[in-house]
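Bumping my old thread because nobody answered last time. Still need a sequence for this structure:
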Protein backbone atom coordinates (compact mmCIF):
# COMPACT_ATOMS: atom_id res chain seq x y z
CA UNK A 1 0.00 0.00 0.00
CA UNK A 2 1.44 3.37 -1.07
CA UNK A 3 0.70 6.37 1.07
CA UNK A 4 1.54 10.04 0.82
CA UNK A 5 1.16 12.72 3.43
CA UNK A 6 1.38 16.42 2.77
CA UNK A 7 0.44 19.69 4.32
CA UNK A 8 -2.03 21.55 2.14
CA UNK A 9 -2.69 25.08 3.35
CA UNK A 10 -2.39 23.97 6.99
CA UNK A 11 -4.50 20.85 6.44
CA UNK A 12 -3.11 17.34 6.81
CA UNK A 13 -3.65 15.33 3.65
CA UNK A 14 -3.11 11.61 3.14
CA UNK A 15 -3.53 9.49 0.02
CA UNK A 16 -3.35 5.73 -0.29
CA UNK A 17 -4.48 2.77 -2.35
CA UNK A 18 -6.85 0.23 -0.80
CA UNK A 19 -7.93 -2.72 -2.95
CA UNK A 20 -9.17 -1.09 -6.17
CA UNK A 21 -9.75 2.35 -4.67
CA UNK A 22 -7.69 5.50 -4.29
CA UNK A 23 -8.44 7.09 -0.90
CA UNK A 24 -7.93 10.77 -0.10
CA UNK A 25 -8.23 11.81 3.54
CA UNK A 26 -8.03 15.46 4.58
CA UNK A 27 -8.13 16.86 8.11
CA UNK A 28 -9.87 20.22 7.76
CA UNK A 29 -10.34 21.76 11.23
CA UNK A 30 -13.19 24.10 12.15
CA UNK A 31 -15.25 23.12 9.13
CA UNK A 32 -18.92 22.39 8.56
CA UNK A 33 -20.09 20.06 5.81
CA UNK A 34 -21.82 22.94 4.01
CA UNK A 35 -18.48 24.82 3.82
CA UNK A 36 -16.86 22.08 1.70
CA UNK A 37 -16.84 21.38 -2.01
CA UNK A 38 -14.85 18.87 -4.03
CA UNK A 39 -14.56 18.21 -7.72
CA UNK A 40 -12.21 17.12 -10.46
CA UNK A 41 -10.32 19.65 -12.56
CA UNK A 42 -10.42 17.92 -15.95
CA UNK A 43 -7.57 20.08 -17.29
CA UNK A 44 -5.11 18.88 -14.64
CA UNK A 45 -6.74 15.57 -13.59
CA UNK A 46 -6.63 16.64 -9.95
CA UNK A 47 -9.20 16.39 -7.20
CA UNK A 48 -9.76 19.91 -5.87
CA UNK A 49 -11.02 20.39 -2.31
CA UNK A 50 -12.38 23.81 -1.31
CA UNK A 51 -13.43 25.29 2.00
CA UNK A 52 -15.59 28.41 1.67
CA UNK A 53 -14.53 28.79 -1.99
CA UNK A 54 -10.81 28.69 -1.05
CA UNK A 55 -8.79 25.80 -2.44
CA UNK A 56 -7.26 23.84 0.44
CA UNK A 57 -5.90 20.89 -1.58
CA UNK A 58 -5.20 19.68 -5.10
CA UNK A 59 -4.62 15.95 -5.33
CA UNK A 60 -3.29 14.29 -8.51
CA UNK A 61 -5.45 11.32 -9.43
CA UNK A 62 -3.91 8.01 -10.52
CA UNK A 63 -6.32 7.45 -13.42
CA UNK A 64 -7.73 9.66 -16.17
CA UNK A 65 -11.29 8.55 -15.47
CA UNK A 66 -12.50 8.05 -11.91
CA UNK A 67 -15.81 7.33 -10.24
CA UNK A 68 -16.46 8.28 -6.63
CA UNK A 69 -17.39 5.32 -4.46
CA UNK A 70 -17.79 7.12 -1.14
CA UNK A 71 -17.54 10.65 0.24
CA UNK A 72 -17.63 11.00 4.01
CA UNK A 73 -17.15 13.95 6.39
CA UNK A 74 -17.15 13.61 10.18
CA UNK A 75 -15.28 15.37 13.02
CA UNK A 76 -13.40 17.65 10.60
CA UNK A 77 -12.13 14.71 8.51
CA UNK A 78 -13.05 14.43 4.83
CA UNK A 79 -12.57 11.09 3.13
CA UNK A 80 -13.08 10.65 -0.60
CA UNK A 81 -12.77 7.24 -2.25
CA UNK A 82 -12.56 6.87 -6.02
CA UNK A 83 -12.11 3.92 -8.31
CA UNK A 84 -11.07 3.63 -11.91
CA UNK A 85 -13.75 4.76 -14.36
CA UNK A 86 -15.89 2.14 -16.04
CA UNK A 87 -14.40 2.76 -19.49
CA UNK A 88 -10.72 2.66 -18.52
CA UNK A 89 -8.42 -0.29 -17.89
CA UNK A 90 -5.93 0.14 -15.05
CA UNK A 91 -3.40 -2.06 -16.86
CA UNK A 92 -3.32 -4.66 -14.09
CA UNK A 93 -4.48 -8.22 -14.44
CA UNK A 94 -7.65 -8.88 -12.55
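Sorry it took so long. Here it is:
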Amino acid sequence: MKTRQAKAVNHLLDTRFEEHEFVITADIPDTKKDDLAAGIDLNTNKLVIKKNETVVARVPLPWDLVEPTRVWFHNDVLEIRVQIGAHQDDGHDK
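The domain at 3-84 is CATH 2.60.40.790 (Immunoglobulin-like). Let me know if any region looks off to you.
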